[in-house]
Amino acid sequence: MFEIQADLVGTIAGLSTASDMNDLRFLHHAERVAYISLRIGEVLDFHTDQKKELVLSALLHDIGVATTGERLKLADLAPEQEFASLHCKRGYELLKATPIFAPLAQNVLEHHNYYNDGLRLIPAIIHLADRVEHLLKKDIYCLWQIEPITNYVQKEKGRLFHPQVVQAFLELAPIPSFWLDLENETYRSILRSKDELAHTLTLDQLEEIAWMYAILVDSRCPFTAVHSSGVTRIVELLSRNLGINSSKNRLLKVAALLHDIGKLAVPEAIIQHPGKLNDRQMALMKQHTYHTYYLIGSIGQGIEPVQRWAAYHHERLDGSGYPFALKAHELELEARLIAIADVTQAITEDRPYRKGLPKPAVEKILFSETKEGRLDPDLVSITIDSLNEIMYFQ
Ligand SMILES: [Fe+2]
Ligand SMILES: [Fe+2]
Ligand SMILES: [Fe+2]
Questions:
Q1: Is 355 in the same domain as 374?
Q2: What is the pLDDT of residue 185?
């Protein structure tokens, strides 16, 4: 009954945008690096499997970047090896733990390595593509930038960059459409429409990917380090108690895992703020569910229910929620459930400025939210009945 037409490259291209939204200079960095890499791979006559490995590794190459400050430093022409290796190692660990991406982990680990005899072509291509992407400024006509970029790449042949990769790049650089594809954002549709890169996602793989992003979101803030996984556990427990059927349950789990993915697009100064947010900070925080909505939407056709259930977790029945200010009749049971799980997880978890609340205080808050007409009363009462179970694991 739930048919999702999700493609692996399109999904990762879409979701990778989240971390690149932190700073507009880096918007679509991952996708642009993937496109440059693909074009180099084509010049090198890569076969289909190599191209798939190259494009996916390039889309995920910076998944280990933890902060905007780190991203800025990595944009330096030749960041210190020791510094660069931090995000390579983080990315490696994250991908290693995700079966579908484990074969790509080594490429990500080596994507800042200088040229040496043993350097493999895929990380070497990503390295060069990454530098070219940083050099290519978005506010200058791209065709005016070919010469200085080419000169730089040539100068670093055999030191920073693999000679074979430099050679392939030099064949590509005189072709105007290569650069114009980047300037016009044509690369986005090219990456998503190449038949040879197509790979339909199974639900198992979608769940794996959702877990990886949940870990990534949680790792951005030490005091909400288990929030996404905690909300998912509560949602699973409540949906079991509600008797929701198993195929819906899987999607509900994906929605719970991804509900805060939009937080990747919120600056870490806000995410890690150890106290109540002021109005201006709160305004930025409120962007996250908006981004969650569109990021999940980019996964593919059929994902719409997951998109709604996940992104509506700060909507309230009385219309006081965000980001769409929806009303009760627009909020399905699954979205209401994730909203309650989100509140419950947040107030039972320890924060640096307060301890996790005890059961009576949790009940009081959930009841008053119900009385005010914000949370679903039936679901709240089921939650309260399950509180012992929920809090046992907190
Ligand atoms: Fe990197
Ligand atoms: Fe990068
Ligand atoms: Fe949230």
A1: yes
A2: 94
Distance, in Å, from the CA atom of 63 to the CA atom of 61, rounded to the nearest integer, reads 6
In this structure, are 264 and 377 located in the same domain?
A: yes
Helix axes 287-297, 304-311, angle to 10 degrees: 170
Instruction: Point out the ligand nearest to the CA of residue 65.
Output: 1
- Ligand closest to CA 221: 3
The CATH number of whichever domain residue 292 belongs to comes to: 1.10.3210.10
- Cα of 278 vs centre of ligand 2, distance in Å, is 33
Is the separation of the CB atoms in 11 and 209 below 8 Å?
Answer: yes
Indicate whether 139 and 180 sit together in one domain: yes
pLDDT, one tens digit per residue, over 287-301 is: 999 999 999 999 999
User: Ligand nearest 323 Cα, by number?
Assistant: 3
Directed axis angle between helix 48-59 and helix 29-43, to 10°?
A: 160
Q: Strands, DSSP E only, in the chain?
A: 5-6, 300-301
Q: How far is the CA of 16 from the centre of ligand 2 (A)?
A: 12
The boundaries of the domain holding residue 25 are 5-197
212 C-alpha to ligand 3 centroid (Å): 17
Rounded to the nearest 5 degrees, what angle is found at the Cα of 292, between the Cα atoms of 348 and 287? 85
Domain boundary among 178, 197, 216: 197
**The total number of structural domains that make up the chain:** 2
pLDDT in tens, 187-202: 999 999 999 999 999 9
DSSP string, 30-42: HHHHHHHHHHHHH
For the CA of 75, the nearest ligand: 2
pLDDT under 70: residue ranges of the chain: 1-2, 393-394
- What is the predicted pLDDT for the residue at 220? 86
